[in-house]
Inverse folding.
């Protein structure tokens, strides 16, 4: 079961976050995570995406929605891939990063979920309620997202993504991988 | 496998649409559809929802979002049911009706999908592209929705929902039931 | 120039935030702010709203969208008030509170902005970019919102709203009042 | 008073719609409408946008949100223009076209309105309720939009935009021009 993670990264935060998501997905027995930087997309990557059981879309939120360079990739799927619904029933999920905790990141996740719905994909979000609601989850999902994974750019430029957001990303990646395996097993 | 369809209806359109969705779901071997008018919600209905494999939420779009009477039901789920994620990993879907083909109905479907994500549910949308893109689908999904099912109130007050929207609803109900069965089989 | 602030509050945070917004609006020469708890709506309040130059809508975000009790109020505007566009060209704005910094609060602000658009109102958002982008604005608009005002419930149950969110609210209220006065002056 | 209309067009529908919007804006005494194809953006166009009293954003909806080529333009505004809020208090509005009447076009209008809010602009939507609610408005705003202008691609490839959508666009353009003049007069 391959979990494809097409993403773009501006200053590097999204790339680091994507790797944490991939680590989480790869930690699930039977799942393999493959990062695809869509700014360096190869023709063979379309085959990879076609064969994946799940696709996790990731990009920064710029000016309130998905970065243009990621939208380029999204628009490229608008031909036969869409009209023939070739991604139908694949598991889909999304993640995004911005400077601020809200930062209109939900707008990007909504955009990604509508995009996935146009492809008749099955959308899986987070299942982590953070503290103070779930006291055991201190630091986890600190932005308080549900539709997908959010991270706030770390002020530590070496780290890029703070450790709590990284742990949230790993849990999220694992959740998507488990969902994809379960969905495949039920086919 | 029970497919619960909690809904509210104002002038009757949503009720008729809900029945078409239920008919579609019930047409799938192994699935049973149960309509729940949330304005007449019984305490036992919460058990029914707890036991369902899929929950399909339905309501009219009033003033650009889910009817208040349906939001009452949504807010009632905000206690332990939410904090303990008791609906985690249930299949979820949504439908809505308004006077106009766009009519801000997407706003309602987004609202329902974010709500389902807060419950860590798995969101399944439509998989029907209408004509002229898919010429075989004349009349099907005529509003052009993806995140969930949309219908436009019929001008025929006896019918409430035109036959093409009704057929779209049955296909949608069947899709959700198949997804729920597949998801259960993979557990 | 009257600035009406219809709101609902659950545990009190939104009420406190609404007062800060009102204080900001009232600080502008020529503007008067009037709080309207829509759970105790009087028939005369509809006249008050009809006469207001700006209406600022406020409610908690519950389960990813406006609290049902506020949606009740929104749905009540769906008769002649809407079909005759009696609120056409009034200035509109919105604010919301939740436990988390993102907390799907953008979903509520989108819902309010679509609602205002159905009434052909003119939508005014925040004009405060917080730190680290605008270093002078430390603590201001810390959630990073744009479409309207967001606050995160204070952990200090006496305070309800932390002082930085309160200051953001006052600036927001003042902005809306200034916009309403300018809009009126241009008529 | 200059009304700038930055847009992109794929197969031509949005260009035709943009012209109808421009015609409507230019029909208002004191207003001049200027179309700016952002795929052929000149450095001087940024001065034009800086000097405009209103900016009306227009693009097709591709895969559920603003076409990538338009998002390129949006992202280009993310430098000093944004951090210094140089477009603060300009009037903003948006329009979009897709193959279907709903067609997730609301997602694009929400995206544009959040973008405008990031720039602290003032958002003006439609003020036309179509038939059957307003019987005098047969054909006008037939998709039933509120946040901005929607059109459905005409099946007549010569026309591109049907005459009712064209008339809706002219009324919309005129509304935005009137709002911009009023807003300027009140300064």
């Amino acid at each position: 079961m391959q979990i494809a993670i097409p993403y773009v990264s501006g200053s590097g935060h999204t790339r680091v976050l994507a790797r944490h998501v991939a680590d989480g997905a790869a930690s699930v027995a039977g799942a393999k995570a493959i990062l695809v930087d869509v700014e360096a997309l190869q023709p063979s990557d379309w085959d990879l995406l076609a064969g994946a059981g799940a696709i996790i879309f990731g990009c920064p939120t710029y000016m309130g929605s998905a970065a243009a360079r990621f939208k380029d990739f999204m628009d490229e799927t608008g031909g036969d891939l869409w009209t023939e619904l070739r991604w139908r029933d694949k598991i889909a999920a999304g993640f995004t990063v911005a400077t601020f905790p809200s930062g209109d990141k939900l707008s990007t996740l909504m955009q990604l979920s509508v995009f996935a719905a146009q492809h008749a994909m099955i959308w899986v979000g987070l299942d982590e309620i953070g503290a103070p609601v779930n006291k055991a989850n201190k630091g986890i999902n600190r932005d308080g997202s549900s539709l997908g994974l959010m991270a706030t750019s770390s002020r530590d430029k070496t780290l890029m993504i703070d450790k709590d957001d990284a742990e949230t990303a790993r849990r999220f990646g694992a959740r998507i991988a488990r969902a994809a395996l379960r969905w495949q097993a039920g086919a």
